[in-house]
TrEMBL record:
It comes from Sinocyclocheilus rhinocerous. Residues 100-197 form the Fibronectin type-III domain. Belongs to the type I cytokine receptor family. Type 3 subfamily. GO terms for cellular component: membrane. PANTHER family: INTERLEUKIN-27 SUBUNIT BETA. This is Ciliary neurotrophic factor receptor. SUPFAM superfamilies: Fibronectin type III, Immunoglobulin. Pfam families: FN3_IL27B_N.
Length: 304
């Protein structure tokens, strides 16, 4: 037969209060703040310290209460109260002052079409205290699962429930802290947020035996999952450094192009990919390539 040893730990009210960890008290910048020394009676006499030193901020003391006037960031600190005359510590308060959040700025983008999209958000003004975010994604009046990013704390990922949907998506982000909450919502069509990442491994080099031409090669974005089904169109802008006018080349279904130092131009067709993939990705990659006749500055854009 096994025996069980039960230990019962008791403490007096004074001992328990003494062992209590500091509690956090959040207050708004500019407000008057009242801190109560534990559960002492109104006629109790106490001495207050902040970070181990005397409290020098503008204040008023009423029995076991310390009232700070119009707190600011310098009011932050660990406040301790000691009961007179024995000097027993009765309470500790970690005062954190800040602001309630304002509406977050929300943007959404799909760089992995047709797998899904991600949404990011940020606050334009700091709150100075911990602030969390609640995310709600709706499509055709149905909620969608939003998975928080493991690296970027203010980002979530959502899978497309269907493709070529005529119903808009709605994303609502709510910023919440101990002083308040604020929300922002955006709505968008599927095609309007598709924006591929920049091309990768871009290389420009002179063509052998032709000093007036450059060969440019690149890889499609590794994040783009299906180049065959959803091909990308590339738009190259380039110019000799001695000229101000840009020259243009549009490339489809290829990952290389030859550029001439002579003026060239090619129109960009308005087709289904433009309506599906949305606006231009504002990516510019500058490369200097030297040949015997000129130095050329090359910019590459992805058309969506």
């Amino acid at each position: 037969m096994q025996s069980v040893l039960v230990l019962k730990i008791c403490c007096t009210a004074q001992q328990c209060e003494h062992s209590t960890r500091a509690r956090i008290q959040y207050e708004r910048i500019g407000n008057d703040v009242t801190m109560q020394c534990g559960s002492l009676d109104n006629d109790a006499s106490v001495t207050w310290k902040v970070n181990g030193t005397d409290v020098k901020a503008r204040r008023r003391e009423e029995g076991p209460r310390l009232i700070l006037m119009e707190v600011n960031m310098s009011s932050n600190g660990l406040y301790s109260c000691f009961q007179n005359p024995d000097g027993q510590r009765r309470d500790q308060i970690n005062l954190r002052v800040g602001l309630p959040p304002k509406e977050p700025q929300v943007t959404c983008r799909s760089n992995t079409y047709p797998k899904g999209f991600y949404c990011s958000w940020h606050l334009q003004h700091p709150t100075y205290i911990p602030t969390d975010f609640e995310v709600d994604v709706q499509h055709n009046q149905r909620p969608l699962e939003a998975t928080r990013d493991e690296v970027h704390k203010n980002r979530c990922h959502v899978k497309f429930p269907e493709l070529f949907s005529s119903f808009p998506y709605r994303v609502n982000v709510t910023a919440v802290n101990s002083l308040g909450r604020a929300s922002s919502a955006i709505s968008f069509e599927e095609s309007s947020i598709v924006k591929p990442d920049p091309p990768e491994k871009v290389v420009a080099k002179p063509v052998a035996n032709n000093a007036r031409r450059l060969e440019v090669t690149w890889n499609s974005p590794s994040t783009w999952p299906d180049v065959e089904t959803f091909p990308l169109k590339y738009f190259l802008r380039y110019r000799p450094l001695i000229r101000d006018q840009w020259q243009h080349v549009s490339v489809e279904h290829r990952f290389s192009s030859f550029l001439s130092s002579l003026p060239t131009s090619q129109s960009v067709r308005e087709d289904f990919l433009r309506s599906l993939l949305g606006l231009l990705n504002l990516f510019l990659l500058h490369i200097k390539a030297e040949s015997r006749c000129c130095v050329m500055l090359i910019s590459i854009k992805l058309l969506k």
